[in-house]
Write a structure and sequence with these properties.
By secondary structure, the chain is mainly beta. The chain contains five helices and 41 strands. The model is unreliable at 1-28 and 140-149 (pLDDT under 50).
């Protein structure tokens, strides 16, 4: 999800240094901490969040905290030890800043500095200590024992020798007809983003007979949020660095491609790939687009198109239309200025770019009235786009502004953040937009601008688009008039209108609330929208002295989430023409996994408890439940191969934010009715 900030992930925790990690002698200068602090800090590190960064500092669900790639993030000119300490105090633990005593955080930073080559000195590290003013200067030289450290890479990489695209498609006609396909050809099933399959072999009368038929353990320590796509009996899925093709009926691996990082990697997650004309296309954490052969996994080309050193990173599944790859970077809290871009399918060359945070002279620039010491930023994207192929309207959900949280730091409506933004798919020209959460003060990203559908309202057929985000409200807009037809809360709303100030405010949804990276499904069978949601509140507070640190987390305050036991999840079914709630399913933990509806009258969903559910789409009754052994936060897809309908689900830790116990290893589990 989101709000895994570059600087949130800069310092959190670890347990012990890997043997042989330190490759050179420590710094000749005394560090601003004592040996006793570093010793205590090792214990703080281990118990606080070693699960995020690994017990040996090498990274797990989040980035490494030692070595060349970590140090490179802190080599901006004029950065001091105090800047590092400030980021830790203001952002750690993630979504719970202020819950760990500052003395413990001081000790953790001492341990981190020692792990990166600093030598202890006689003076303790503490807020206001003189030693904090010294510039960061890494003395150690490190090499990853696993070979995973970033290596410098060119902007364009040639393909593997002899690599050619696959020959089986899908072509543009197949993608245009994805809504009728028995495959799952687009991240959200089709360009309209319906997450609805016309398959009906599995239905409300027989779903209780489902059985698991195969599974694939991916074998990587990763935040597993992938949404698989399936074509001609092959399933394609992604982790942060790997792209994998498997037999969609047996789960046997056909090929695996591993990406070697060639730059910074802010966030360790990837939500999926796009497929067209025998090419599998994905983004990487370090800002590359990569195209692979769908049949062999051989690399056709790779091109750096985002600036990972500035905090830009790819997490979304791209969309391919005609000869264009459509994508944008995540990283609003990394102080990026967001954009949406189109690139040629043949080689990744850029075609057009639209700035979601306007530059001087561009429309919308005057909606930011920031003081000169508060740079404009934000406007990233981290979920897939929807497309109306008849009009060429590309619908983009733009996320939060930065500095994140207090709106008084950036007066104005802050376009185009938290807006549904509609662009001409071929040129990138602005067609229309509507701001859903102007001047956002709660990190309430608009996370989805889909599905697109039509409905008869008041006797007239209307072309509609549903939008939803972390503010927990589903709004459906008329695509002709841009008016809001209805707005329906799908989670707890509390103190939503109160600004974030230096006085703590408890508000719902919190920074992990509302609808995250998997959005609504629209069922043509039931005429309903199905929306997964998080019910989790936070306490917001503005920083009385916000600090802009180049290249680091760009926050104007903190938001401490409520204890996990106070969270819950909802799956809400709404009448798609009126927004009236027809039924709700409560989960004991937030719901972040995909929701899929089918012509068989089913709604397929997943829970952080690890349970895969098949529900009756009309009543909400649970017809089937199976525990996959890992928290569910990724895709749920259904498809037909060999005349048999299958359902595939992603199981395993979505990220450390969503797991308070064992989240399970990344795994694909496939279900079907028993073979006759």
């Amino acid at each position: 999800m989101k709000l895994v900030l570059v600087s949130i992930t800069v310092v959190a925790c670890s347990a012990t240094l890997a043997a042989g990690w330190l490759q050179s002698s420590p710094s000749s200068a005394d560090g601003p901490f004592t040996e006793a602090q570093a010793t205590r800090g090792k214990e703080v590190y281990a118990r606080t969040c070693a699960a995020c960064h690994g017990p040996d500092l090498q990274g797990a669900a989040s980035i490494p905290l030692v070595g060349s790639s970590f140090q490179a993030r802190w080599r901006f000119p004029a950065l001091t030890v105090d800047d590092l300490f400030y980021i830790v105090r203001k952002t750690m633990p993630p979504q719970a800043a202020g819950t760990v005593p500052v003395d413990d955080l001081s000790d953790a930073v001492a341990y981190l500095l020692q792990a990166n080559g600093y030598r202890p000195g006689p003076t303790p590290l503490a807020v206001g200590a003189a030693g904090l003013k010294q510039p960061l200067a890494w003395a150690g030289k490190y090499a990853s024992p696993t070979g995973d450290s970033a290596i410098a890479g060119p902007d364009v990489l040639p393909g593997d020798a002899g690599a050619t695209p696959g020959t089986t498609g899908p072509d543009q006609a197949a993608l245009d007809g994805a809504g009728r396909s028995t495959d799952w050809l687009v991240h959200t099933h089709d360009y309209a983003g319906t997450r609805y399959s016309p398959l009906s072999q599995i239905d409300t009368s027989n779903a209780a007979r489902l059985v698991p038929t195969c599974m694939l353990q991916v074998g990587e320590a990763d935040s597993f949020q992938t949404g698989p796509i399936v074509h001609a009996g092959t399933m394609y899925l992604a982790t942060a660095k790997s792209t994998i093709a498997i037999d969609a009926a047996t789960c046997r691996v056909k090929w695996r491609h591993s990406w070697r990082l060639r730059g910074d990697a802010s966030w360790n997650r990837n939500r999926g790939v796009a497929l067209k004309d025998g090419r599998v296309v994905r983004g990487t954490p370090d800002g590359y687009l990569v195209a692979l052969s769908s049949e062999t996994g051989a690399m056709l080309w790779a091109r750096r198109v985002a600036d990972s050193a500035a905090g830009e990173t790819f997490t979304m599944a791209p969309v391919i239309y005609d000869d264009l790859i459509l994508i944008g970077p995540a990283g609003s809290e990394n102080n990026i200025k967001g954009w949406v871009g189109a690139f040629r399918l043949a080689d990744g060359t850029p075609v057009w770019r639209f700035n979601t945070v306007p530059r001087p002279g561009e429309p919308g620039y005057d909606t930011w009235q920031n003081p000169t010491n508060i740079p404009m930023a934000g406007g990233a994207v981290w979920t897939s786009f929807s497309l109306d192929t008849a009009t060429g309207d590309l619908h983009v959900a733009v996320t939060n502004p930065a500095p994140d949280l207090p709106a008084h730091l950036r007066p104005g409506s802050n376009l185009y953040t938290n807006s549904i933004l509609v662009l001409d798919v071929r040129t990138g020209k602005h067609r229309w937009h509507r701001s859903m959460v102007p001047a956002d003060s709660h990190d309430w990203d608009l996370s989805h601008a889909m599905p697109l559908f039509s409905a008869t309202i008041g006797g007239a057929s209307r072309r509609l688009v549903a939008t939803v985000g972390k503010d927990g409200i589903l709004r459906t807009l008329d695509r002709e008039t841009h008016d809001i037809v209805y707005a329906t809360p799908v989670t707890t709303i509390k103190n939503a209108d109160l600004p974030v100030t230096t006085t703590p405010t408890h508000a719902c949804p919190g920074v992990l609330g509302g609808v995250e990276w998997n959005g609504p499904s629209y069922s043509a069978t039931t005429g309903m929208l199905y929306v997964p949601a998080v019910d989790w509140c936070s306490t917001f507070i503005a920083d009385p002295e916000p600090r802009y640190i180049p290249g680091k987390s760009y926050l104007g305050g903190t938001a401490a989430r409520d204890p996990a036991e106070k969270s819950q999840g909802w799956l809400t079914a709404l009448d798609a023409t009126t927004g009236v709630v027809r039924w709700k399913h409560r989960s004991p933990r937030p719901m972040v996994a995909a929701v899929t509806s089918t012509a068989g009258g089913l709604v397929l969903a997943g829970e952080l408890t690890g349970d895969f559910l098949a529900l009756d789409g009309r009543t909400g009754d649970v017809l089937y439940r199976f525990n996959t052994g890992g928290s569910m936060g990724g895709g749920i897809v259904t498809y037909e191969t060999g005349g048999r309908q299958y359902i595939a689900v992603a199981s395993g830790t979505p990220s450390a934010f969503w797991v308070d116990r064992n989240g399970g290893a990344p795994t694909i589990v496939v279900f079907a009715l028993p073979a006759i």
